[in-house]
Amino acid sequence: YFLNDRRQHVEELITPSLAAGKVVILDRYYFSTMAYQGARVFDPAEIRRKNEAFAPVPDLLLIMDLDVDTSLERIGARGDVANEFEKRENLERCREIFLSLRDESFVRVIDSSVMPSITTGNRLETYVLAGKPGTGHIMINGGAAHLIKAGERVAIMAFALSAEPVVSKNL
Asked: Cβ(120)–Cβ(152) under 8 Å?
């Protein structure tokens, strides 16, 4: 279950950062292990129990949800063969495990199906990573990285959750 690696990460980075009052943002945590190892017949509840014995529960978990058919289309669009984690049965089980968390108070499920390319008109959704500071560049992550070409212009639509109504003064 990658317990030793995670324990080291918690002890050496996460716990000291939280103790120093820093914000910790991770793109993978033990919930991913639950889903991917759970899809390989390990018990997701046991994986969670063992991790939560030492790893802090997050304040917020964003689950970027995408239906399996769309996922498989994106995998096919990148021009290679799906790996063992990208087979329909595995994706269905991973999604099922992730979505089983949706009623937890700290979990938000986000529909991950739309992002338009200004250049081609294609729509996709993923998350982006910051590029080199000061350049205005971003990096498209995941399978979407194979669908957008370097230099292509994209419109980024950001969605946020808020307990209070938010009104933009720029509308």
From this structure: yes
Cα 106 from Cα 103, distance rounded (Å): 8
From first to last of its 171 residues, what are the pLDDT tens digits of the chain?
A: 589 999 999 999 999 999 999 888 887 899 999 999 999 989 999 999 999 999 999 999 988 888 888 888 777 776 777 788 888 999 999 999 999 999 999 998 887 766 555 556 566 666 666 677 777 777 776 666 667 777 777 666 655 555 665 554 443
Strand 138-140, strand 128-130: pairing: antiparallel
Residue 122 burial by CB count (10 A; 0-12/13-18/19+): exposed, middle or buried?
A: middle
Dist CA 114 CA 134 (whole Å): 27
Q: How far apart are CA 121 and CA 26, in angstroms?
A: 31
pTM: 0.66
Q: How far apart are the first and last CA of the chain?
A: 48
The one-letter code for the residue type at 163 is A
